[in-house]
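hiii so um. not sure if this is the right channel but i have a protein structure encoded as tokens and i wanna go backwards to a sequence. like what aa goes where. can anyone help
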């Protein structure tokens, strides 16, 4: 196909979002197709005879367009967790309208790409989309993780971040295999309350990495998260919408999480850390924790596996699929089961090595070569 390929880039006006989530996905797209694809935040300039890819089809925000803007359109739907578990992610009046409009706008897309077979099943069941219109393309790791020397550091990218976060990570006296690690967000599906309870039962140290785990006076605070939640979305949220977000039910669980972890030295909150520091943590930790009640993929499993770091995962279909059972699994709703499994892997070097080695081999399945080939097949109608 000779048509130009345009990719919508929402990180162009939100540099902080380039750190995780959609930013990570854009990163691997740019690494694999940056020389031949055009990344833009202005869809009005996309010619009608082109191919358009929306890499983060978000049902909870206003549609990019209700009309077809290119002759071929591809939507990437990473997961439908907010729609599947709507009681935990109330959309409000405006959000409900956005969901309806996005369902209408989705009719203009010729194909849907998603990250896992588990998410594909949800798309079929929840959106009533035909199976032949959906393709599963597994993400891969960015080059900075496969080959750390290739990491490109942009000083401006981190200019708005608190320097204390970096000083904290650098100065913390980590001992090899002396802590567990959680990397991610703090939404309801991340299961932080049960994780915190399990950590206290197991009586071990856990490091929490993610921009939502900002620190005030050395500890994470609910107020800091509330401010960050609105600040990071200020360009897309009106003041009343921001207030709506802060009343979401998942914040009640988050408040419980902060109460459980307050003044407890076993919980270390770093906030955001750059990849160079994150890789050090994966190399040093005893186990990566991903105990979500729901996921679309589970990126931290890939990141940890690259450093032969074993993962403790929720026993849910998507994480079974991604890991191909090369991990230790727990009941995410049972803190005692989580604690038992944490201790089992935390204090058993032989088990850690066995699972970590198997995870490293599993990572080969998620290659950049395969990711690129699968995308090109779709673009070229193969």
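sure thing!! here u go:
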């Amino acid at each position: 196909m000779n048509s130009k390929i345009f990719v919508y880039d929402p990180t162009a006006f939100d540099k902080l979002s380039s750190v995780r989530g959609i930013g990570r996905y854009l990163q691997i797209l740019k690494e694999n197709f940056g020389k031949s694809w055009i990344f833009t935040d202005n869809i009005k300039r996309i010619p009608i005879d082109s191919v358009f890819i929306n890499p983060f089809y978000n049902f909870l925000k206003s549609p990019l367009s209700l009309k077809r803007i290119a002759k071929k359109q591809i939507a990437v739907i990473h997961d439908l967790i907010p729609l599947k578990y709507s009681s935990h992610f109330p959309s409000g009046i405006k959000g409900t309208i956005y969901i309806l409009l996005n369902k209408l706008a989705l009719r203009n897309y010729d194909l849907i790409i998603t990250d896992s077979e588990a998410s594909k099943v949800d798309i079929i069941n929840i959106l009533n989309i035909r199976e032949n219109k959906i393709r599963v393309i597994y993400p891969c790791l960015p080059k900075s993780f496969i080959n750390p020397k290739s990491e490109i550091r942009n000083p401006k990218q981190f200019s708005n971040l608190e320097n204390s976060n970096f000083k904290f990570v650098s100065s913390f006296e980590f001992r090899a295999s002396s802590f567990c690690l959680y990397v991610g967000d703090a939404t309801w599906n991340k299961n932080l309350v049960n994780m915190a309870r399990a950590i206290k039962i197991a009586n071990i140290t856990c490091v929490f990495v993610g921009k939502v785990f900002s620190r005030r006076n050395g500890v994470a605070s609910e107020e800091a998260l509330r401010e960050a939640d609105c600040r990071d979305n200020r360009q897309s949220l009106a003041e009343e919408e921001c207030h709506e977000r802060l009343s979401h039910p998942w914040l009640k669980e988050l408040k419980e999480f902060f109460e459980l972890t307050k003044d407890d030295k076993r919980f270390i909150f770093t906030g955001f850390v750059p990849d160079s520091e994150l890789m050090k943590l994966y190399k040093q930790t005893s186990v990566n924790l991903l105990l979500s009640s729901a996921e679309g993929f589970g990126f931290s499993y890939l990141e940890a596996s690259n450093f032969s770091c074993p993962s403790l995962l929720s026993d849910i279909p998507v994480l079974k699929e991604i890991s191909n059972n090369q991990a230790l699994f727990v009941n995410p709703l049972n803190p005692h089961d989580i604690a038992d499994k944490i201790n089992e892997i935390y204090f058993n070097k032989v088990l850690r090595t066995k699972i970590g080695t198997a995870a490293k081999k599993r990572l080969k399945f998620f290659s950049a070569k395969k990711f690129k080939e699968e995308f090109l097949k779709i673009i070229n109608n193969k």
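oh and The chain has two domains: 5-138+367-379, 162-365.
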